[in-house]
Amino acid sequence: MMKNSHPRHRTSLIHHMVLITLTCLLFSAPAAAQETPIPLLRFPTQSLTAGQSASLFAYYHNETIEILPLSPPPSLMLELINHSGTTRLLDAHATTETPMVELLPGQFYRLEYQLALPQDLSAILDVRLAEYPDAITRINVEPALHLAEAANAGDGNGSATVTYRSLKDMESLYQSYTADLFTYEPIYFLVGSDPSKSTFQLSFKYRLLNRSGTLSQKYPWLSGLFFAYTQTSFWDLDSDSIPFNDTSYKPQLMFQTENLSRLDAMAGFFVRSGLSHESNGRDGSSSRSTNYFYLKPMAVFYHQASRLGIMISPKFLVYVNNEDDTNPDLPDYRGHVELETRIGRAHSLMLTTNLRFARKGTSVQTDLTYPIDRLIGNNLNVYLHLQYSNSLAESLVDYKERSEVFRLGLSFFR
After folding, report:
1. What is the DSSP string of 63-86?
2. Which superkingdom heads the taxonomic lineage of this protein's source (predicted)?
3. 336 is catalytic
């Protein structure tokens, strides 16, 4: 156990932060601000099926005589218009990361998006960008799950049973809002160098309001409202009964902005804020709980040629209604300021560091992840995950103790 931060430890943290800052400067030389070109929309096929996912390609063309910095949006808001003029709004999401690129004069840049076609679509539709009505194309959407073919195979009056290709196809009839469910914090299972300090974490966030609904259309910022939930468990794998030592339950209500960056040197700038609760679900003297408001700006830099990305994200916390009976001094161990940094290449090695600055000492957690399919073939969709933690208040029940441990395992979202 370590009781206080060592001065040499603090010096290494400062060196780490300086190195990240210098790397940011190296890969983010400023360029003159220019307008993003309106993309040309094209579907690989003009005949699509309702209830299925469809690919859409957006072509960006530099029609100027100068090099044009381009930061494609991660999603496109589309208007689908039928022959009677009825309009539906759908989101198309990029299938890959959307880094900043530089287009030479006359050069095209193509980016693939995916959109989920609703089950009840069946018509020839005009598709255009909500923001740029002149960017338009046309598609023919067939009835869901080849209903026409199934009807022809029946008694001729359309009464034949529809054959669903997968369980997901059938579930989609009842699960209308899965497109609004997202991953949030990392999801992992890690075994500690001391097995009694093993851990796993689950996390998700859920968009509360329909982006195509009347409220979000009138007040677009409302589509940034989310409910999020993270559960972190500390598992004693060294004991015969392998009990859980402690579990933190962390629901929160949060708001997240779209990309606010107006700088060519910065691929993305986002702000996340919210009200978070954390407790361990126990009673008596082992009960721990707290609440806090937080503000978390996120600056993202990306170098297209090297595929190297960097994120710098401080977090500021204000505690409210902290449990004064069993953990009155928790803020002294957790702190009011945190700093998260990420550096790594797309679908490759990534290093994430989380620092917490508190009156009782500094805490650090470092996570190194690498896609396993780059090591042993292209079959497993998981990351090899190495974690080092030297932290106060890593678990709520022992928040006054400093824990130092290496962990190794798998993560499903990093």
Report:
1. -SSS-EEE---SEEEEEEE-TT--
2. Bacteria
3. no
